[in-house]
Amino acid sequence: QASQNLLFMVNNPTGHASVASAVGADRLMLGFAGAGGYRDGDLVKYVVLPGLLQPTTIGEPDGSETVRLTQARKAFRSAGFPVALNRTMDAWYRYHAAWVTPIAYAIYKARASDTFLAQEPKLLGEMLAAIRELWASLSKLGLEITPPNLRLIQKLPDRILVPIVARALSGRFADTAAYRHAEAAPAEMG
Questions:
Q1: What is the phi-psi region of residue 104: left when phi exceeds 0, alpha when psi lies from -120 to 50, beta otherwise?
Q2: How far apart are CA 22 and CA 37, in angstroms?
């Protein structure tokens, strides 16, 4: 009750209106952590994602740049997180959900076949097609793609993008940030 600043670090693709109503729109800030991980007993194992891939993203519900937003960015940066400000967090949440959900379901499908997604170029192509289809739907709703670097997925052909995504989904980093994260969150992905 005493705090004047509440930063919600969750993906809510349905928008922030219900949260603003519950806590007060003037107190609410929106964000999403640029990290991925999973619980291992009492420990949380995670990796901080590269800023180019997904920085910790924060914004005001009305898109303004405020002193408290600048202070939050400074705090995250001092903790070692790359940070980006976003003026359209509700759109950001929707595009993010339309990106990570097909990745998670492709991971589940590959695991069901006892393989890793990075070893399944056909499945990677299907995953990219699903992402593009969802983004096209969001675009038709009048939501501009955010962050703008996601446009590469729309523009690059699969013959270039599939090997890049396969490489990104290989190794220990991807194991923590993608595979184990998706496996720990099937209800969230649903």
A1: alpha
A2: 29
